[in-house]
């Protein structure tokens, strides 16, 4: 049996499969034991000491050259992403290029190093707010963005002089190993370590280890375990967790355009995006037309392998998650939600972990379809009479990641900006974020400094108030 990707060593092995065709093995990875991980952390610490001595401008140039090399190999990275994750190749390519664009912001950050000028309170003093690298950043990634989640952690970490120990999801590790391979030419040896370990070992390393920050992206329950492990040593955390993101459709001159944006945000990566819109809160006046347009567009989508350029949507990433999407949608339907289209898998999982694009009508706010992150191509439509009701429902989940409002009314837009309990707020477009804007959530969607943009410095550096008298 030949594998496309083979990395790591260890007696225990994890194999990945192509979710569009699960009999096709894609990767073979040796699972690292605890002593291997300890050694990786030790090596990262040594490499970090060397990297922190490199002047910031040179770090900036080397990071830029690394990003150039990633861009040059975007097709190869995107293929690895699609073969293990399942999403469309063009989405994987877009993910790669976007992660590079975000990384370019970090290139500038390495040159700025969070510089702040501040006045002194006393004569013959100078005051400075200094920023230093934290040290080794332990990074834990989920399976839905195998290229951009590692890049979103690697670029700011290295820009500010840190080393990275990266634990990828077992379902999609190829891209992380490829990125580490590309990086070798530009950075000190061992600065980026990929540790293929089981999840529980990752928490154990956080609790025990010689690391200085944890950046975790994943689900709320696992995030809480990581947070608790980090608390044992008061290690700073950045947690980016789930969402049950709502779009309010209140009034629009272009219903078709608004619905297209909502559908894009709902079904890209088969709905397996933390920022996917999974609830449309629609004013009753617009409800029938909205459901008609959603249903006709969703039912026309072609599901198929991500490598087939005629596909509109790929499969679910892995079998356990495919089972969750099936059973959670069944629960939603048993609670009264009505599938206007979809609501089932088109085939047995042996033939690919596909799930039909699904629009659920008659959804009540307190039900599974109104509250839980199904994390698949399942969009709930919830109707409202007043904008007050819409805002109560928008904010009435455990999550607070992203949100959208479609309206031309300035009073409602201002209320939305003031009252949407989400880290990210979009008016009159879907939930696509820019490459220089903070990315993160509140409530159960996140803790700590956001990633991307100017505030990432708060997680990736320590802060020092320095006074010099002369
Ligand atoms: P997950 O929480 O199951 O796993 C995430 C990572 O944590 C994986 O690498 C996993 O192996 C590891 N892990 C498992 N147990 C662990 C433990 N005890 N200690 C430490 N690490 C452990 O999440 P997933 O299923 O891979 O990803 C889907 C979830 O990620 C969704 O909830 C989604 O919303 C969320 N997500 C959030 C963002 C964001 O930026 N907010 C982005 C992408 C995904």
How would you describe this structure to a colleague?
With 470 residues, the protein is an alpha/beta fold. It folds into two domains: 5-241 and 444-469, Aldehyde Dehydrogenase, Chain A, domain 1; 245-435, Aldehyde Dehydrogenase, Chain A, domain 2 (3-Layer(aba) Sandwich), CATH 3.40.309.10. It contains 15 helices and 19 strands. The chain has helices at 34-52, 56-72, 74-85, 89-112, 148-159, 174-183, 199-208, 220-231, 255-267, 284-299, 319-334, 368-371, 387-395, 410-419, 457-460; strands at residues 5-7, 13-18, 21-30, 116-117, 125-133, 136-140, 163-167, 192-194, 213-217, 237-240, 245-249, 277-283, 338-341, 358-361, 378-384, 402-406, 424-427, 446-447, 461-469. The strands form four sheets. Strands 13-14-15-12-11-16-17 form a seven-stranded mixed β-sheet, sandwiched between helices. A six-stranded mixed β-sheet has the order 8-7-6-9-10-18, sandwiched between helices. The radius of gyration is 23 Å and the shape is globular. Nicotinamide-adenine-dinucleotide is lined by residues 140-145, 167, 169-170, 199-200, 202-203, 217-219, 222, 225-226, 240-243, 274, 373, 375, 401, 441, 446.
